[in-house]
């Protein structure tokens, strides 16, 4: 009975109250951050993406939730900016090209460098293994192992395998972001 009442109250709140989330997407260049933002915003995939220079910010509304998405460039010269754009956000989304084995070590190190920053303590992290539409893409279990995610114990960390191109698991990604965003900051 209590869960029915809670569901009803949550539904009533959603009618009258808007939720605003601030999320930062980081990851190495060519991992699919901008593509993911565009798919979340428009529902469409485009092959013609140019590398993000610096950052892009996009506001997206899904139902009663408005998300401010910071898409930060992944080239080495922009990685020093990541911390600044991750401060005070509801969640950090770290996007990994799960089919680019050569960059996994660098991705793991950059994630560690970012999460070692005291100002970012306790901000939840969602690691997305993008490009699961490619034959040689890592599974979620393999990505968790390669990125050593189980050793991160100072915050909540989740990991999903997605394809921004084919819009696979975008729905559960959005559900996670909205759930975590409502409970933090």
TrEMBL record:
The keyword Magnesium applies. GO terms for molecular function: GTP binding; GTPase activity; metal ion binding. InterPro entries: Arl8a/8b, P-loop_NTPase, Small_GTP-bd, Small_GTPase_ARF/SAR. The keyword Magnesium applies. One of its GO terms (biological process) is protein transport. Belongs to the small GTPase superfamily. Arf family. This is ADP-ribosylation factor-like protein 8B. It comes from Rhizophagus clarus. The lineage of its organism: Eukaryota, Fungi, Fungi incertae sedis, Mucoromycota, Glomeromycotina.
């Amino acid at each position: 009975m209590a869960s029915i009442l809670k569901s009803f109250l949550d539904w009533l709140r959603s009618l009258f109250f808007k939720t605003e989330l601030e999320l930062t997407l980081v990851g190495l260049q060519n991992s699919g951050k901008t593509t993911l933002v565009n798919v979340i915003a428009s529902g469409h995939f485009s092959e013609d993406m140019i590398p993000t220079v610096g950052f892009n910010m996009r506001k997206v509304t899904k139902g009663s939730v408005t998300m401010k998405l910071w898409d930060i460039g992944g080239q080495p010269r922009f990685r020093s900016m990541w911390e600044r754009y991750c401060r005070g956000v509801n969640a950090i989304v770290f996007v990994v090209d799960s089919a680019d084995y050569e960059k996994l070590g660098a991705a793991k190190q950059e994630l560690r460098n970012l999460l070692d920053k005291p100002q970012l303590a306790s901000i939840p992290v969602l690691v997305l293994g993008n490009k699961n539409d490619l034959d040689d893409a890592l599974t979620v279990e393999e990505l968790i192992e390669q990125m050593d995610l189980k050793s991160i114990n100072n915050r909540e960390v989740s990991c999903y395998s997605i394809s921004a191109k084919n819009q696979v698991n975008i729905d559960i990604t959005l559900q996670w972001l909205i759930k975590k965003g409502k409970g933090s900051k």
